[in-house]
Write a sequence for this structure.
């Protein structure tokens, strides 16, 4: 796999911390051994590995690596804050023999850069961020264009809602969350022009108390479909299910939490991409900052790290057909952000017929028309 050159603007790092961390190791039992003489691979996660969300998906990806490379021990650490504690945990993994480190949270960027600079013989890759400018040659970033399946899930939400009010609980107004909220609304509006998406931010990747309040607030406004961009997703899903409303999932398959109200979702399947990244390093083909690389994969690349979650029992065949048609179009020559795209103030941000590139999409700093709520100023 080649690292693609995408010169992208730097995103603002927003930190979310958990208090403790623990380190475990695992090794696979089958697959293609790289022949690296017992080198280890380290993965750090900002939250627990069983959060029904972001960290669970990343942990499952690490276990796919363990299976693919049984001769390389996989070290994992949960609940690693996005501060100097991340540096400490990665340094500990390197002392144990790790030669590849996956820093899997947005706010792990700066610690990952620091560790990469201090250990030029260790490859450090960071999940979800963007770095523009000089980087250590042993450092790179990667992510998937997850706003594409979020747009598709928006179609399902737009066809399902009876009140024309959708809800979205999110953590921070970074580019990833703004892209997802906007894509969700654009997808819903493509099949239901009357629909609106009401947003609530929690200023935390995983705070169940704040999530419960956010869900309560949205439900009280008549929202009948709720999605989210939170690391841990169970609280919002359970609250929505208990209210007899509909859920669109994110990060992982949580159908077990909402047997009646689950619609669909966007979930990560990191295993193939993680495994391919490891192979790139083992084969000596990692080029890192020589090309200022920020690697992005999605529907157009054919090696996207996400899948659409299973459909729930209420999704009709007609709605599924609409999703299939939209996915085929995006995979070929379109995008959720193909113009016209208009913001909340009525300003055209993407002209009609124009399909923005990754750089433009990942620098979005506005809400589109139909989103109800304001971006926090700080």
């Amino acid at each position: 796999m080649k690292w693609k050159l995408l010169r992208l603007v730097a995103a603002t790092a927003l930190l979310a911390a958990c208090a403790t961390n623990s380190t475990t190791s695992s090794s696979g039992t089958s697959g293609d051994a790289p022949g690296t003489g017992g080198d280890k691979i380290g993965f750090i996660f900002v939250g627990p590995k069983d959060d029904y969300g972001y960290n669970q998906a990343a942990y499952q990806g690490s276990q796919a690596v363990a299976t693919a490379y049984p001769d390389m021990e996989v070290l994992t650490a949960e609940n690693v804050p996005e501060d100097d504690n991340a540096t400490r945990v990665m340094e500990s993994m390197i002392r144990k023999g790790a030669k590849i480190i996956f820093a899997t949270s947005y706010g792990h960027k700066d610690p990952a850069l620091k560790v990469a600079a201090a250990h030029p013989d260790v490859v450090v890759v960071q999940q979800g961020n963007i770095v523009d400018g000089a980087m250590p040659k042993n450092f790179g970033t990667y992510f998937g264009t997850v706003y594409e399946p979020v747009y598709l899930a928006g179609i399902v939400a737009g066809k399902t809602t009876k009140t024309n009010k959708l809800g979205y609980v999110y953590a921070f107004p970074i580019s990833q969350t703004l892209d997802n909220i906007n894509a969700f609304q654009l997808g819903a509006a493509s099949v239901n022009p009357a629909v609106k998406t009401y947003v609530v931010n929690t200023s935390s990747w995983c705070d169940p108390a704040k999530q419960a309040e956010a869900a309560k607030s949205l439900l009280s406004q008549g929202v009948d479909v709720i999605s989210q961009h939170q690391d841990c997703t169970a609280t919002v899903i359970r609250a929505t299910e208990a209210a007899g409303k509909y859920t669109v999932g994110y990060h992982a398959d949580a159908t077990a939490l909402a047997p009646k109200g689950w619609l669909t979702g966007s979930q990560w399947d990191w295993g193939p991409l993680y495994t391919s990244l490891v192979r790139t390093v083992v084969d000596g083909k990692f080029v890192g900052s020589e090309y200022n690389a920020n690697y992005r994969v999605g529907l157009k690349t054919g090696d996207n790290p996400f899948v659409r979650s299973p459909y729930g029992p209420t999704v009709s065949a007609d709605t599924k057909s609409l999703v299939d048609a939209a996915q085929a179009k995006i995979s070929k020559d379109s995008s959720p952000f193909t113009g016209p795209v208009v913001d909340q103030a009525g300003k055209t941000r993407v002209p009609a017929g124009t399909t923005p590139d990754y750089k433009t999409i990942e620098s979005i700093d506005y809400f589109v028309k139909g989103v109800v709520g304001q971006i926090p100023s700080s």
User: Anything to note?
Assistant: The longest strand covers residues 262-268. Residues 1-21, 28-36 have pLDDT under 50 and may be disordered.
